[in-house]
Amino acid sequence: SYDEEGLKTNRKDYEGLMKYKELKMMEDRIRAIREQCGDELDIIVENHCRTDLSSAIKVGEICDKYNIYFYEEVVNPMKTKQMALVREKIRTPLAAGERIFGRWNYANFFEDNSIQVIQPDLATCGGLSEAKKICDMAHAYDIKVQGHVAGSPISLAAALQLEAAIPNFCIHEHHLVNQMEDVRASCVYDYQPVNGRFKVPDLPGLGQDVRQETIDNLTIQHVCVDQRKYVKP
């Protein structure tokens, strides 16, 4: 995050009991977005587990004032009791899941209703089959799904396939990574939204293939690294 002067802030400034200055800066920014966009835009607040419990609740209280769509990764996702404590204190829906693995770890959050939007990452949660099971479990608890997509065009295509196959899809994440030119050029097909919407790939498999040049470049880099390991000083 950045301060009023555009300088990168210290993470320590947002741990423990946050100062009024930091809280006011956050609220000023959220208010400015809401006033500029009105009812035409849903706002998502990404915390990325960067605060502790006390600060997470303080930020959540600000979210409540501006009808935030959901508040993401409010605390460490392994601390289910802390997530539930935040949920008790605020009205804004909570989201988490990119660092949660397997349906059994998700189950704890389902049972106490501490999160309302899950964000499984297909590359880490157990793959497509496991992700589908997680999403189906979430549906039984009236929980929505937004796949975590901060990887390659392959992850993007896979997430689109999953989201099209479940009844509790909420919103698709289009991360900055998936807009970088080198990332977009790494695969054959470049799936990008048009007027805020994606078309689900209808090609075989996931609907994506890695370019041969990408594979060749990775092979060359791997060989170079291995060679350096065996070079004597």
Written description of the protein model:
The chain has 233 residues and is mainly α. It has helices at 20-37, 53-65, 80-89, 102-111, 127-140, 153-164, 181-184, 212-229, and strands at residues 44-46, 70-72, 94-96, 117-118, 144-145. Strands 1-2-3-4-5 form a five-stranded parallel sheet, covered by helices on one side. Helix 2 (53-65) links the parallel strand 1 (44-46) and strand 2 (70-72). It is globular and about 55 Å long. It starts with 19 loop residues before the first helix and ends with a helix. The model has no long low-confidence stretch (mean pLDDT 89).
Offer a concise description of the structure:
It is built from eight helices and five strands, in the order αβαβαβαβαβααα.
Task: Give the helix proportion (percent range).
Answer: 40-55%
Output mean pLDDT. Answer: 89
Q: How can the largest sheet be summarized?
A: 5 strands, parallel
By secondary-structure content and strand pairing, the structural class works out as mainly alpha
Instruction: Provide a count of the helices.
Output: 8
- String of helices and strands: HEHEHEHEHEHHH
Rg result: 20 Å
Shape: globular
State the low-pLDDT regions, or none. none
- Head-to-tail CA distance between termini: 42 Å
As laid out across the biggest beta sheet, the strand order is 1-2-3-4-5
